[in-house]
Amino acid sequence: MHQTQGHPEPSAVELLAKYLRRPSILLPLLGLVTFVVYSGSLSFDFVWDDWPQIVNSPIIRTWSNLPRAFGNDLWYHVARQQVYYRPLFVAWSMLNYTLFGLRPWGWHLGAVLLHVGAVASVFWLARRLGLEYWTAALTATIFALHPVHIEPVTWVSAGSDTMVTMFAALAFAAFLNGRDREHTPDLKKRAAWWIASVLLLACALLTKEMAVMFSALIGIYAWLHRSKAKASSARKFMAAGMEAAPYAVVTLAYALLRRHALLSVTGQFNPGHGMMDVARTLPLVMSIYLRQLLVPVGITGLYYTPYVTTAILSQVVTPAVVLGAALIGLWYWNRCTRTSIVAFAGSWLLVGLVPALYLRNFDNGDFVRDRYMYLPSIGFAMLAAMGLRRLPSIKGWSSQLVQGCAVLVLCSGYLCASITQQVYWASDLMVLLRGQSLYPGNPSTMAGLAKEYSKGGVHGRAIELAESVVRDHPEYGYGPLTLAEVYIHAGRFQEGRVWLDRVNPDYAKSEVGMAGVAGLYGQMGDYERALALCSEILQKEPNLYSALYNCGNIHLLDGQYRQAEQLLSRAVQLVPEQAAPKHFLGRALLQDGRSAEAQPYLLQAVAMDPKVWDYHYWLAESLEESGNISAARTEYRQALQLNPDGKEAKMRLTALEAK
How far is CA 58 from the centre of its chain? Predict the structure, then answer.
């Protein structure tokens, strides 16, 4: 070691540690590493709920719709009986649409940046909870790199989980600032922090329902950090309740607002399984979450954990014993440390997961989702960081060296697992194939794959999968509908009709179900039956956008242009931000011989979404009919550039160029 004026020159490690000791350097560096790990997701497509929530959502197209987001559910344009009340997620979607339109890379960029923001929030929360600097830094690192977060970071629609976690972490850190007289002696500043924590909780609640447990976490923290240790249990409970009360009031106000905005306040129950099945299944579900935290391999968006209906050793007793052992271990650890931080971190992990443990809110087998672990995993990250920092020296290795090697091994494993497993979120087909490889008995996955194959024209494989769903999972309500759909797409209408008649009656009577079934009858050319269903939907919900749009198109296919015009005009009035209803309204007018009236709508559709070849083709037809041959040629060429196989466009362009 070199000497300079009697003082040893610091080593590279010491110099690095000195710089990383500054949050202004540590957090940007950690954010950069996190961004690089997930940068591959910028090439991913929209998947799953991204289509109705983003691509086909009319509400996000203009900021003037922001008030509507606070008075409707996320899928109001699809059906009335929905339960997703997330106005701030809609606002985030509006921002993304303003910046990126419907370019997937921009939305994925936003999702990754949300994760980076959540990582910084976790670091601040860990510091305010009393963790020393390097333990807090390790907590944030574990949270940043853990593979269980792949789903909410790479799937745009799961950005609500990232947002609610960031808001909740910031709200709790602000609460701690307002509570700590030593850290914040000024009364006005403490009041400002307390107000900030309440407002941040409101933001969390308006992002996703997981934040409803926040006031319980406040109460638990207040109980564990009571100011008068010798007070009676009743007094301690009262004091904790008083601290949690303002946050409970905010949560209650949110619940009332949500109830006012939504027609339904809960999800669909599974009537075939009672609370006994729920009790038998809960240990298995919780043990799977614990396994994914401890050994994050086999990550997928399609876990399959059906109800446990008998007391099977491997599915009930063993998971219960494992969970019991984990709780005892945490209790013993907390007792040995003589602090409450272990107890609170464990409470955050368990209490944060509670909203996802009401199994009757989900379809059978659809109980485990990695995104539900995003918020609770803050507790796990703190526990893991504290555990690593307690590793002792081993055979001549100092404790610092042992801890450093353990951290290096853990983070390297997380990096590899995150990079290799996130690729399965690149497209709908990749998600489904991954789920099928890990859980081949999942009927939802098989049905999804059948539809994907059907879209791609692989009808034989699609029918084979759909038939296996119906045969092996007669309890799966969407099986007959899937089989009917793939038969119809394959042109086997007779078999399609048979399975349409067997569609689950409850689904067939819903708005979404009737619209879907009507569309399938329309594809078969059975317009009478399709339009009868349309009439029934519109009698129940005369202003439901999806019904107006779908039924208008069925009238258009049937050649009933005036009826199509009436419905599509109302669809355009409801959602003027969407290109598709304007396009089909223009087609209805054009085919009704009203080219001059059609042209403005067709022009607007092309201007709003210029990448759809069909829009250019029909605009070209209207221009040709009105005598604007030069402009018609341009639009036909544009249509062929987007779809070189367009036979009609080729024929019409050839005819025009021959003139």
Answer: 18
What are the tens digits of pLDDT across the range 93-120? 999 999 998 889 999 999 999 999 999 9
- pLDDT of 305 > 80? The answer is yes
Average pLDDT over residues 446-452: 91
Say how far apart CA 32 and CA 472 lie, in whole Å: 47
| Whether 252 contacts 73, CB under 8 Å | no
Tokens of 110: 């936003």
Q: Cβ atoms within 10 A of the Cβ of 135, count?
A: 18
Looking at residue 338, its pLDDT comes to 77
- Retrieve residue 605's tokens: 């559709």
Please work out, in degrees rounded to the nearest 5, the angle formed at the alpha carbon of residue 515 by the alpha carbons of 509 and 516. 95
C-alpha dist (Å) from residue 296 to 285, 382, 520:
15, 17, 41
CA 333 → CA 140, 390, 423, distances in Å? 21, 11, 38
| Residues in contact with 251: Cβ distance below 8 Å, sequence separation at least 6, in sequence order | 201, 205, 211, 212, 214, 215
| Helix ranges restricted to H, 225-274 | 233-261
Task: Look at residue 252 and tell me whether its pLDDT is greater than 90.
Answer: yes
Q: Which residues pair with 394 in a beta bridge?
A: 397
Lowest-pLDDT range, 228-232, 326-330, 555-559? 228-232
Phi, psi dihedrals of residue 476, rounded to the nearest 5°: -75, 115
218-229 pLDDT, tens digit each: 999 988 887 655
Beta-strand relationship, 3-4 and 7-8: antiparallel
SS3 659: coil
pLDDT score of 598 more than 80 = yes
- CA–CA separation, 572 and 598 (whole Å): 13
Cβ 347 vs Cβ 122: under 8 Å:
no
Q: How many CB atoms lie within 10 A of CB 588?
A: 28
Give SS3 for 3: strand
Number of H helices, E strands in the chain: 32, 2
Task: Transcribe 502-530 into DSSP letters.
Answer: TS-HHHHTSHHHHHHHHHHHHHTT-HHHH
Of the candidates 34, 300, 51, the one whose C-alpha atom is nearest the C-alpha of residue 156 is 51
54: which DSSP letter? I
Nearest to 352 by CA among 301, 289, 299: 289
Q: Alpha helix (H) ranges present in 262-274?
A: none
Neighbouring residues of 400: CB distance < 8 A, sequence distance ≥ 6? none
Which range of 153-157, 237-241, 492-496 scores highest in mean pLDDT? It is 153-157
The number of CA neighbours under 13 Å toward the Cβ of 261 is 23
Q: Which two tokens stand for residue 598?
A: 């059609």
What is the total residue count of the chain? 659
This prediction's pTM:
0.85
Q: Report the distance separating Cα 248 and Cα 241, nearest Å.
A: 9
Taking residue 625's Cβ as centre, other Cβ atoms within 10 Å add up to 15
Q: Which two tokens stand for residue 18?
A: 């000195």
Question: For residue 290, which of 365, 217, 364, 370 has the smallest C-alpha distance?
Answer: 370
Q: Is the pLDDT of residue 1 over 50?
A: no
List of residues 6+ apart from 423 with CB closer than 8 A:
40, 430
Pairwise CA distance, residues 500 & 515, whole Å: 13
- Which ranges of 73-186 would DSSP assign to H, the alpha helix? 87-100, 104-128, 133-145, 150-154, 159-179
Q: How high is the pLDDT of residue 82?
A: 63
The three-class DSSP label of residue 334 is helix
